[in-house]
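Self-study notes.
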Amino acid sequence: MMMQLVASGRGVCCLPNWTLHEYSSRGYVTAKRLGENGLQARLYAAIRSDMLQVPYVSDFLLTAKDISFATLEGVNVVSGIAT
C-alpha cells in the first residue's frame, strides 16, 4: 500500500532496496540512498529450538534463504552468515 501511494505521487516511504526494486526498475518510483553508503541490516528468522528438527520448518527456512539470495535485489551474504 505504501508503494502504491508513493507511485501515485501521494507519499514517501523508507523501505529496503529489495522491496522496491520492482517499482524502481519500471520507473514507478525513484529510490534515494539514506546516507553516503546507505543502510544495511541483517534479517533473522527465529524459531523455537524444538521446531528446528521439524521437516517442514527446516525446509521453509532453507527455501526462504535460497529464494531470497536468488531473486531479491541487493540481498547479500554478510560475513559468511547464511546457514
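Second protein, same conventions, sequence then structure:
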Amino acid sequence: MNQRILWTAIAILVILLGAGGYAYYRLGRGGSSTESAAAVPPPLATSTPQTQEITEGERLYQSTAFHFSLIFPDNLVATEYKEQGGALTASFQDPNTSEGFEVYVTPFSGAQIDEARFKLDEPSGTYLQPTEVVIDNVTATMFYGFNPIMGDTREVWFVHGGYLYEVATYKQLDTWLGGIMQTWKFI
C-alpha cells in the first residue's frame, strides 16, 4: 500500500510541476520561447482557493478580485498563482490524468487584444482557426495555439472590465472546455 501512495504522490507532483512550468512559460512576459526558465520570475504566492460544491460532480470557483466565476468538474483541483503585475493564474487539474485548464487574468487598459499583446503572451505565434465566440455577453476569440510544454492548445481570450482573460487547455479537450466556458459569469 505504501508503494501505491508513493506513486500517487509522484504522479501528483509531476502534474503540478507540468502545470506550474506551463504557467511560468506563459507568464514570462516579454521573453522569448528560447529563454531559460530561470529568467522567468516565480509566482508571488500559491494558494488553494475555497470552492463550493453546487451539484454532484460540479464545483463553483469564484474570484471576486478578478470578477468572474465558473463551474468545473469536481475531479479537478483548483490552485491559484498570484503573478507579477497584479495578475493571477488559476489552474484546474485532475491529479490522476492530464485533464485540466488554466485561466490567466491580468490588468489590461486596452479594449481589444492587438498583435503586439498577442505576441507578448503567445511567443510561439501560433494562432490557428480564430473564431469569434461569446462568453457571458462578451465577444471573445477562440483559437488553436501551441507551446513547448503542452503542445497543441485550445485557447479563448477576451477583455472585460479592465482585465485580459486567457483560458487554455490541451487541443484534444476543446469540446470539454467549451462546456466549462458556458458556465463563465462576470461578477
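Instructor comment on the second fold: Residues 13-39 have pLDDT under 50 and may be disordered.
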